[in-house]
């Protein structure tokens, strides 16, 4: 199972809608995810699909209930809102140090890149102390930049989600 987590308003729902091939434009509105929402995401070759769950930011204290059987975590951060970064860092660190998540693969998804200026990616990673964090934790963390609004970077994220090697390992575990 792949799960999509991240702080409040970081852009999870719009990104999940984009991954689920829903129509998205400037007028698309999202509701706060107060619970858990499941999305069906089609593989790039269109041959199969998987289900991905989004847990809303408001329920961060209860994320743990949804983590058994999770092989991949997409952790979504709003790259255009650096004020939120420290909260995001605390949530991410809590997940990375959780003993039951040591074998999980992480994608750190910098969302809303259409709103961010170029340098913001580096600033976001700096504020997360990402270089240091990566040395301290066992998990592989792939950094991906996306905009759910424009669709930029979404193909790369799909490649990560449907990476054949990790999917194979995941099916062995089940
Ligand atoms: N410009 C821009 N705005 C975005 C993008 N993704 C999300 N937003 C906006 O950011 C706000 C929050 O987006 P959501 O996707 O609902 O955020 P969320 O992470 O699901 O929030 P919770 O479910 O409350 O945790 C909405 O107003 C979205 O339209 C993006 O890629 N670009
Ligand atoms: Mg949501």
TrEMBL record:
<keyword id="KW-0479">Metal-binding</keyword>
<dbReference type="InterPro" id="IPR006689">
    <property type="entry name" value="Small_GTPase_ARF/SAR"/>
</dbReference>
<feature type="binding site">
    <location>
        <position position="13"/>
    </location>
    <ligand>
        <name>Mg(2+)</name>
    </ligand>
</feature>
<dbReference type="GO" id="GO:0046872">
    <property type="term" value="F:metal ion binding"/>
</dbReference>
<dbReference type="GO" id="GO:0003924">
    <property type="term" value="F:GTPase activity"/>
</dbReference>
<dbReference type="InterPro" id="IPR027417">
    <property type="entry name" value="P-loop_NTPase"/>
</dbReference>
<feature type="binding site">
    <location>
        <position position="57"/>
    </location>
    <ligand>
        <name>GTP</name>
    </ligand>
</feature>
<dbReference type="Pfam" id="PF00025">
    <property type="entry name" value="Arf"/>
</dbReference>
<protein>
    <recommendedName>
        <fullName>ADP-ribosylation factor-like protein 16</fullName>
    </recommendedName>
</protein>
<dbReference type="GO" id="GO:0005525">
    <property type="term" value="F:GTP binding"/>
</dbReference>
<keyword id="KW-0342">GTP-binding</keyword>
<keyword id="KW-0547">Nucleotide-binding</keyword>
<feature type="binding site">
    <location>
        <begin position="6"/>
        <end position="13"/>
    </location>
    <ligand>
        <name>GTP</name>
    </ligand>
</feature>
<keyword id="KW-0460">Magnesium</keyword>
């Amino acid at each position: 199972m792949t799960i999509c987590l991240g702080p409040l308003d970081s852009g999870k729902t719009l990104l999940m809608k984009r991954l689920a091939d829903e129509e998205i434009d400037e007028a698309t509105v999202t509701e706060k995810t107060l619970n858990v929402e499941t999305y069906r995401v089609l593989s790039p070759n269109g041959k199969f699909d998987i289900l991905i769950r989004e847990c809303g930011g408001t329920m961060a204290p209860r994320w743990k209930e949804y983590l058994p059987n999770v092989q991949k975590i997409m952790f979504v951060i709003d790259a255009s809102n650096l004020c939120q970064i420290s909260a995001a860092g605390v949530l991410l660190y809590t997940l990375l140090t959780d003993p039951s998540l040591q074998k999980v693969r992480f994608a750190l998804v910098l969302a809303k890149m259409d709103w961010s200026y170029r340098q913001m990616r580096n600033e976001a990673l700096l504020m997360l102390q990402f270089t240091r964090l990566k040395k301290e934790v066992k998990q592989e963390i792939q950094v991906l930049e996306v905009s759910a609004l424009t669709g930029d970077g979404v193909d790369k994220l799909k490649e990560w989600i449907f990476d054949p090697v990790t999917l194979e390992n995941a099916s062995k575990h089940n």
